[in-house]
Amino acid sequence: MTTTKVAVTISTDVLDLAKKRVKTGRAKSLSAFVNEAVGEKLRRDELTEVLDAMDAKNGPPSKTARSWAKRILGRSS
Description:
By secondary structure, the chain is mainly α. The protein has one domain. Helices cover 68% and strands 0% of the residues. The chain starts with 11 loop residues before the first helix and ends with a helix. The model has no long low-confidence stretch (mean pLDDT 94).
């Protein structure tokens, strides 16, 4: 994978938390942590676009379908 160095501005609180993750071994480096976070955001955005397109084509899921999905996934929200 090709990488490019960039400069970004983030809040001090976020930076401090990210550095703690690196220090505790949750990420190899700050760059790796940021790269993973940005990648995850991009994947979530893509999924949202797919789900929005499905809703546009088929309409939103029914209350029954949502209840079934929540039950299967074991989630309350």
